[in-house]
Design a protein that fits this description.
This protein is an alpha+beta fold and about 140 residues long. The protein is about 15% helix and about 40% strand. The protein has two helices and eight strands.
Length: about 140
């Protein structure tokens, strides 16, 4: 009987730990102006990175800064990307060579070489409430 009670308590404790949810706060700085909106995407897989966000937010830019908060996130590995949609057309403007004309940012301030940043450079682990900072490129 004692073994069953201990096992039940351990299973309950494990389920409580696995059900923990965390908050991710994102602070983005370095905008060149307050025009338009910022679109922030949160990704939880390499395959979805900069394609299909796990969660997303549209924020306003004020005083060249924006903030986003994602609540109730499970423990895991995530990456963030964002664009500053200055002209409010819903997409990142690029030049003839595909180089962005509007601001963008990636978690860990990851930078790409001859293309977008890699998920491996942008990912971070969420194991407790966390606040990250991103600087617009």
């Amino acid at each position: 009987m004692m073994k069953k009670t201990i096992l039940a308590i351990l299973m309950l404790y494990a389920s409580i730990l696995s059900a923990q949810q965390f908050k991710l706060e994102i602070v983005v700085t370095g905008f060149k102006n307050d025009k338009g909106n910022a679109f922030i995407g949160l990704y939880n897989t390499k395959e979805s990175f900069m394609k299909e966000g796990f969660k997303s937010a549209t924020t306003i830019v004020k005083n060249k800064i924006t903030y986003a908060v994602f609540n109730d996130l499970p423990k895991g590995v995530y990456a963030v990307s964002l664009i500053h949609d200055e002209n409010s057309n819903g997409k990142l403007e690029t030049n003839f060579f595909g180089i962005p004309k509007e601001g963008f940012g990636i978690s860990n301030d990851a930078k790409g070489f001859m293309g977008p940043p890699k998920y491996e450079d942008a990912k971070f682990e969420l194991t407790s409430d966390k606040r990250i900072s991103i600087k617009i490129q």
